[in-house]
Design a protein that fits this description.
By secondary structure, the protein is an alpha/beta fold. The chain has one domain: Rossmann fold (3-Layer(aba) Sandwich), CATH 3.40.50. The protein has seven helices and nine strands. Strands 4-3-5-6-7 form a five-stranded mixed β-sheet. It has a two-stranded antiparallel sheet with strand order 1-2. The chain has a two-stranded antiparallel sheet with strand order 8-9. Helix 2 packs across helix 3.
Length: about 260
């Protein structure tokens, strides 16, 4: 099956009078019985899914992306296993690894991406506000963001993304803070995949009122929004959808999401 959600194409949707496209898509997904997790929506073809800005790196195929997500498991200490709807902060620069990490985390947990240029105080505040159980980031920001303090004082797992030096764009390995780079993290089975009603994403507003607000997105709402973009823009399998937005404190997070639609 090259396009798992092909049954949602407009010519196969019986549009109800007065119903919005989003309402029709939501009902069609719920009634189909074909989609229960994000993995059900990922293709398994050899066509490119994620490109790298580095021309020397081959693109990541849909098949490789699906395989990575299906086996994804965040390394955690034995007494701090992560499950569905547990909130995980994602603090990575925009790029292929960020895109793949967002998809993988959102498949099993509640992904909370934040601007990679945030301050230590901002990250600490966000972790406390959201009750995050883990932060996924890189070793390069350990000192600047006070990650040791987050782990020691808030009991937050710190997980480092380590990009691979060769191979398809976006693939990465992970290590817990404190593990030697040559050590292998304890292996764990993937968590139970999120279903349509689970919260797969939380975003912060820019805080124009003086206080940040948290917006929650269920997996179902993300799928409806994504397919509504596909239909509204008439996207085909040969199209590449890339959007650019001005950078600001937290607006960059919307850009990361929309690049995946």
């Amino acid at each position: 099956m090259s396009v798992p959600l092909a049954f949602l194409r407009a010519d196969s949707i019986a549009t109800a009078t007065g119903a919005s496209l989003g309402e029709v898509v939501a009902a069609r997904i719920a009634d189909s019985g074909k989609v229960t997790t994000l993995l059900d929506c990922l293709c398994a073809t050899s066509t490119p899914a994620i490109y790298s800005p580095e021309s020397s790196r081959p693109p990541l195929s849909h098949q490789a992306l699906r395989g990575f997500v299906s086996q994804f498991s965040l390394p955690c200490s034995n007494d701090s296993q992560l499950g569905p709807n547990d909130r995980v902060m994602l603090v990575l620069e925009t790029g292929p690894e960020n895109a793949l990490a967002l998809l993988a985390i959102a498949s099993y947990h509640t992904c909370a991406p934040v601007n990679a240029n945030c301050t230590a105080a901002e990250l600490r505040d966000d972790v406390q506000r959201l009750g995050a159980k883990a932060v996924v980031t890189t070793r390069a920001v350990e000192e600047r963001l006070g990650l040791s303090s987050l782990r020691d004082n808030l009991g937050c797992q710190i997980i480092y993304v380590e990009s691979r030096s060769s191979g398809p764009a976006g693939l990465f390995d992970m290590k817990l803070m404190g593990e030697d780079q040559s050590e292998s993290s304890p292996s764990h089975s993937p968590s139970t995949p999120h279903t349509l009603s689970d919260i797969s994403l939380v975003l912060h507003t820019s805080g124009t009122s003086g206080k940040k607000k948290v917006v929650r997105y269920s997996l179902g709402s993300l799928l409806v929004g994504t397919w509504s973009v596909v239909e509204s823009w008439g996207l085909q399998t040969t199209d590449v959808n890339c959007q650019n937005f001005p950078s600001s404190s937290y607006s960059g997070e919307s850009e990361k999401i929309l690049q995946l639609t």
